[in-house]
Amino acid sequence: MTLEFDVWLVGLLRQRGMSQKELAELVKVTPAAVNAWANGRSVPRYEKIAAIAAALEVGVDDAVNRRTPRTTPSDLEWVFQRAPEDGSRIGGNAAAYAFAANLEVLAREATQNSLDERFEQNLPVTSRFVLHEVTGRHLRDFLSALRWDSIEGHLREAADRRQKVGRVLIDGLNELERTERLVLLRIDDYNAAGLTGPEYEDGRFARVVRRTLDSGKAGAQGGSYGLGKAALWAASRFGLVLVNSTLSEKQDGRDERRMAGRLELPWHALNGEEFAGPAWFGAKDKDRQNSARSWWADSATAESLYLERGDDSPGTSFLVVGAYDGSGDTEDLEEMYEQLTAGVAHNFWASMVAGGQSGPLLRASVAAWRNGQVVRHERDIDPHVHEPAKSRAVKAFLDGRTTSELTSREDVLRAPVSLRLPAPKEPREGGDHSGTHEAVLLVTPTLEDDPKPDRVSFMRASRMVVKEKKVTDLPLGHRRFQAILLAGVATGNASPEAEAAERFLRTAEPPDHNDWTSTEDLTATYVRGARQAIIDFKKAADQAVRDLLKGQEEESDVDDGPQILRDLLTIDAPKKSRARGFPSVHSVEGSVSASGSWHVKVTVKLPDRDDPWVLAPIARFVVQSGGNIPVEWAGTLVPERNCELTVNGNLRFRDGATRGVFRGVTDASSHPVAADMSCIEVDVPRAKEVMK
User: Fold this and answer.
1) What's residue 554's pLDDT?
2) Helices (H), 305-454
3) For the chain, percent helix, then strand, then coil, each to nearest 5?
4) What is the predicted pLDDT for the residue at 342?
5) Strand partners, 591
6) Which residues contact 3 (CB under 8 A, 6 or more apart)?
7) How many Cβ atoms are within 10 Å of 328's Cβ, its own excluded?
8) Within the chain, which residues score under 70 in pLDDT?
C-alpha cells in the first residue's frame, strides 16, 4: 500500500531527526505550511516536493510516490535485545531443536514453507538451494558486510559449554578460526507470497523474522506449529539467518529487496551488560527503543551479502550463515550438495510430478559454488530419476490412466480408502463435515533393484511425503510394488469432505510432519475416537494394498522359455538378512576426570525398523566383586551423531540410522566406589515414553 503524504513526511522527519521548523527553513516556506503538510490539511506542489526530497536527502521519486527510501549500508547495525529486569534467562530457542539437525530436514521444512506460500496457483513454486563456500578475500568481504566485528563478542560470550547451543557456538567459532572457511546456504523461492506485512504487527514478515511458534497457517497448508522456520536457524553454526524478500504486494510503497537479519543466541553478558539473546540486523528504529527495522536495499548491498535474487518474481531468499549438517554425516561442500538433493527428492518427488493437463506444484534445483567458481552446476531435480515407480504412479493418476488389473509393468492400480472424519469439538463457522472422506490409493510394480520395495507413502495437500512405511502380511508371490496414499485435496477433490480431511490430518501431524498419529492438537480439536480413526485409516490402506495384489502374482517375461525349463534353471537369490532384535552398545570409550567422574563416548548399533529408536541409556559400575551397580548421569546426555534429546532427556535416534553416538558424564556423588577402582558399562534399553 502507498503511504499518504503526511504519514510519509512525518516518518521521514522522525527518521532524520529533523523538526518541522528546520524543514521549513530548508525549503523556504513558513512553519505553518509544513505543519499543514504534516497533519494532512494540504499537499505541497511538485516543486516543493522536490525541495522536500532534497532537504531530507531522498530521491524525488521516493517523495512523489511516498516510498520509504532505501537504507545506505552505513546505517545498518545489529541491535541486541536487552535482558529482562526480573533476572529470567533463556538458554536459546527451543524451537530450533524440535527437528533432527541434518540437511535433509532443513530441505524438507524450507521447501514445505515455500509450497505453502505459492502465489500464482496455476504456476509451480521454484525452490533453489545454492551453497557458497567462501575463504580468503571473499570471506573477509562478506564478514565486513555482515558487521561481524559487532557480533563476534556476543557469540563468544554466549558460547557456554554447559548448554547445547553454547557447545555448537564454540564448535562453529573454532572451526571458522581453524579453517578460515565459511559455508553459506541460500534458499530461494519464486512465485511465493514473500514477507509481506508491517514491521511489527501481524503479517508474514513479523511471523518469520520477529516471532517464535507463530505460523498463521490453516487449511491445506503444511505447517501448524510455526516450527518449520526454526530449522533455518538450527542449520547455522551461529544461529544466524539473513533474508531478502520480493513482496507480492507493496509495503511502504516498495516491493523489492526487503532485507533483515536475525541472530538467535542464549542469554549472555558483555561488558557488564546483560542481553536476552536474540538480535536483529537492520536500520535502527528511532520510534522504538532497542529495535531494528527491516530495510530496503540496493543491488550492491544484496550482492555483498550473497542475497541478490535472480529476477523480480515474488518470493524470499534466506541465507543460512555458517551452514552445516548437525548430524555429522556430511562435511564438505560436495557432500552437502548431495544431501540437499536427496532431501528434496525424497520428500517432494510427488510435488514435482506433472500431468498432461496439470503442471507440477514445485520445481527444485541445487547448486554449489566456491569463491565465485562453480563446484556443482545447478541441477534440476527430476522425480522420475529419483523415484521412477512412484512418479509413474502419480503421473498416471493425474492423467487419468489408472487401471483395475496389472497387465504390464507400467500399469497403476487404483482403489478408494475410507477415512472416517470425527466431529470437531467446536464446529467451524459455516459448518464442518464429519462423515467419510474417500482417499485414493495407487499401486504400481517397481524395479527389481528397488532398495525399499513394498512400501506405501502417505501424503496430502502439496503432496509432500508425510510418512513411508512397509506393508506387511502380503500375499505369497506378490509383485514388488510401490504404493501412494493421496488424502485430502491431494486427491484432486475440492469437496467439503476433502477440506475437512485436510484439517483433520493436519492436526494429526507432529511438529516434524512425519506421521499421522495421536497429537495434543488432535485431542484438543476433535471428539473422542479421533485417534482410532487415524489407526483405522492406516489399517484400511494396508488392507487395500493386499486386496489389490491378490491375483497379481509376479509373471516372467515371455522370452524366458518354457515354464518347465524356467523352473529347472531358476535359482532364487538369497534374501537380504534384515537386522532384528534391539539396539546394542558397539563400543564405549571412557576416562576418569580429576573430579572423579567417568566421561564416556558410546557408539550404539541400531537394528533396522520403520520407526526411530528412543533409548534411555544406563551406566553401571562393574566393581571387583562382580556386581553391576547403576550410577546416575550428571546432567543430560550429549547427542553427537544421528540422535537428539527428547523432552524427557532420552535419546531419539534418526530414522534409518544404523549407528549413533552420544557422550555422557557420570555423577560422582552416586558412585558406590571411586571411579578409578571400577569398570563402567553402558546399557541402552528402550525408553518408557515410547513403550506401548
Assistant:
1) 55
2) 333-348, 383-386, 388-399
3) 30, 30, 40
4) 92
5) 599
6) 11, 66, 67, 68, 252, 253
7) 13
8) 1-2, 92-101, 213-228, 429-433, 551-580, 623-627, 689-692
Residue 436 Cα distances to 474, 488, 546, 681, angstroms? 27, 11, 22, 54
Q: Which residues contact 92 (CB under 8 A, 6 or more apart)?
A: 163, 164, 165, 239, 264, 265, 266, 277
Closest CA to 59 of 71, 50, 46: 50
Query: Contact at 8 Å (CB) between 437 and 421?
Result: yes
- CB-based contacts of 389: which residues, under 8 Å, 6+ apart? 444, 445, 446, 447, 450, 481, 482
Exposed, middle or buried: residue 620 (CB in 10 Å: 0-12, 13-18, 19+)? middle
Give kind and range of the element (H or E) at residue 533.
helix 530-549
User: Are 315 and 188 contacting, i.e. CB atoms less than 8 angstroms apart?
Assistant: yes
Q: pLDDT (tens digit, 9 = 90+) per residue, 434-473?
A: 789 999 999 999 988 888 999 999 999 899 999 999 999 8
| C-alpha span between 444 and 449 (Å, rounded) | 15
Helix (H) or strand (E) holding 486: strand 481-486
10 Å CB burial of residue 534 (0-12, 13-18, 19+) is: buried
User: Which three cell numbers, joined as nine digits, stand for 384?
Assistant: 522420475
- Give the side-chain half-sphere CA count within 13 A for 663: 9
User: Do residues 623 and 655 make contact, with C-beta atoms less than 8 angstroms apart?
Assistant: no
Cα–Cα distance between 205 and 249 in angstroms, integer?
12
User: In this predicted structure, what is the pLDDT of residue 165?
Assistant: 83
Nearest to 362 by CA among 586, 232, 191: 191
Q: Scanning the structure block, which residue is given the C-alpha cell 546426555?
A: 637
Specify the pLDDT at position 144: 96
Closest CA to 445 of 528, 545, 533: 545
* Helix H or strand E segment including 110: helix 103-116
Which residue from 11, 92, 81, 87 is spatially nearest to 52, judged by alpha carbons? 11
